[in-house]
Amino acid sequence: MGFMNAFFLICASFSFFTGFAIAGNYHIDCNIGVAYGTQGDNLPPPSRALDPLQTRVRRFRLFDPNPDLLNYFNSTQGIFTIAIGALNKDIENLSKDPNFAKAWVNTNIVRYPRVKFNYIVVGNEMIRTNVSKYVLQAMINMNSAVKQSGVPQSIKVTTVVAMGVLGVSYPPSAAVFTTDSIQIMRGIVSFLQNQGFPLFLNVYPYFAYASNPSKIRLDYALFNTTDVVIQDGNLQYKNLFYAMVDSLIWAVEKAGGSNVEIVVSETGWPSAGNTAVATVEHAKMYINNMITTLMKSGTPKRPEHAMRTHIFAMFNENKKAEGVERNFGIYRPDLTEVYHVNWPPTASCDIGNR
Predict the structure, then answer these.
(1) CA angle 259, 235, 216 (to 5 degrees)
(2) Are the CB atoms for 250 and 301 separated by under 8 Å?
(3) CA 326 → CA 41, 119, 156, 322, distances in Å?
(4) Paired sense of beta strands 32-36 and 176-177, if any
(5) Quick one: which of 277, 265, 264, 273 has its CA closest to 323?
(6) Predicted local distance difference test score (pLDDT) of residue 276
(7) Closest CA to 316 of 308, 325, 307
(8) For 86, which DSSP code?
(9) Are 144 and 136 in contact, with CB atoms under 8 Å apart?
(10) Whether 125 is catalytic
(11) Where are the alpha helices (DSSP H) in 106-171?
(12) Which of 63, 122, 320, 324 could make an SS bond with 270 (beta carbons 3.0 to 4.6 A apart)?
């Protein structure tokens, strides 16, 4: 098995579609956000954590409808744009009971009229689990509930997939969904295509590298090489992140989603927990090199698309499993930086419901 075959079989990946272009100039400044996890018992209150970020970050992903965070965002007059998650444990009820979906929207959306919600994310990495069969109908019911609620903003309903939804992923243009997920993914992709909604993807080059360091170049995983590492037809890949994203996009296209946008819901690199790979230096390099790369262009398959991307995570969270899982934060709970992020400028941001 060659270097790239091994790498892509280890990490099932993400992709983009040919010919999908956004009108106007390429503009990424307002598209870098943060995934705000709350699995810690020593985290600061939202006002202390977020007030300093108002001039740096305008986009957040919440994993659940956290009332403290929602109350804070409701007080900020729409400065931030929010992707709010519905918990995995609620998916079956959302699927089976439209009234449950209506109650969820009333409790977590309508109650906060000054929050600028742009996405409701139904579940996190639930495809290829025993909950898979409920995800699409849960999304449909949630979308209907949003439309019936009368909220004045356009809110898009989606879900998050993991890299494991791909059965073939190398080269990116050969990517397809696994045989046990293809039927479900075709339904989800059709819904997203028809509604004009995006698909959320979690992208972690760290785990691909850490699983197979003898086959994957560290500089390729860290956006730290100018070498063409993958040549896929006329598409050239110099970083693992873009190769992963483009793999899923090819699979989405083949499932009928030629116009389904991709939003990166999580990506990051741990700063501790694996001394050989997870270091502050590598975490800082990965995130800042990623931002620099995104500022220049989109993926090789969609170079003109300024991809919305959420850095994981806001904090090191001490209630997560020991090891790297606790060490993806940009900040420590005392608000000191784990490493410095070179945030893009946000002064001219007008992100609306993007």
Answers:
(1) 110
(2) yes
(3) 12, 26, 30, 6
(4) unpaired
(5) 273
(6) 86
(7) 325
(8) E
(9) no
(10) yes
(11) 132-149
(12) 324
Rounded to whole angstroms, the maximal C-alpha distance in the chain is: 55
Tell me the pairing of strands 32-36 and 59-62.
parallel
Residue 317 falls in the annotated catalytic set: no
132-168 burial, b if ≥16 CB within 10 A, otherwise e?
Answer: bebbbbbbbbbbebbeeeebeeebbbbbbbbbebbbb
Looking at 92, 266, 304, 322, which residue is catalytic? 266
User: d(Cα 174, Cα 138) in Å, to the nearest integer?
Assistant: 30
pLDDT value, residue 153? 80
**Measured between alpha carbons, how far is 86 from 104 in angstroms, rounded to an integer?**
9
What does the block give as tokens for 263? 């939003």
Q: Per mean pLDDT, which range of 190-199, 236-245, 270-279 is the poorest?
A: 270-279
Distance between CA 290 and CA 339 in Å, rounded? Answer: 14
CA 134, CA 91: separation in Å to the nearest integer?
A: 6
d(CA 299, CA 74): 34
- Section 226-232 average pLDDT: 97
Which residues, including other chains, have CB under 8 Å from residue 117's CB and lie 6 or more apart? Answer: 81, 82, 83, 84, 109, 151, 153, 155
Sign of the torsion formed by the C-alpha atoms of 104, 77, 263 and 37: negative
Catalytic residue among 125, 253, 261, 317: 125
Q: Supply φ then ψ for residue 227, to 5 degrees.
A: -70, 145
Torsion of CA 212, 218, 221, 225, to 10 degrees: -150
